[in-house]
Amino acid sequence: MKFVVVMVVIAVAAARPGNPYEKFDNLDVDEVLGNSKLTTSLLKCMVDDGRCTPEGTDLKNLAPGAVQNKCADCTAEQKTKAAKFMRAAKKDYTELFNKLVKIHDPNNEHTAELDEFLTQN
């Protein structure tokens, strides 16, 4: 998989109408990040370390498609929300963040892309 950030973009951002991610249009990133239990649960779901809610399962199942097309359907707002979530995950949930990266970029081929995404959005 090419771009690990895209997976979490879907987890934290709204999507353009008509695509399968639109059910997450009203997801409040600040609310998720403000609840460590919720953030941990979502990240554990995404790395197969915990149970998934129906929404978490949807995110986990939909994410690979977004990764494959580098989130072509994402809006600027989605990318901003995703970067915010990823920066927090990297800083405050380092172990889970690293597992997520390892799953989707096991050879660290896209570290520069990830860093660029986090600084530009």
UniProtKB/TrEMBL annotation:
Organism whose genome encodes this protein: Dendrolimus kikuchii
Signal peptide limits: 1-15
InterPro entries: A10/PebIII, OS_D_A10/PebIII_sf
Keywords for this protein: Signal
Source organism phylogeny: Eukaryota, Metazoa, Ecdysozoa, Arthropoda, Hexapoda
Descriptive protein name: Chemosensory protein
Gene transcribed to yield this protein: CSP16
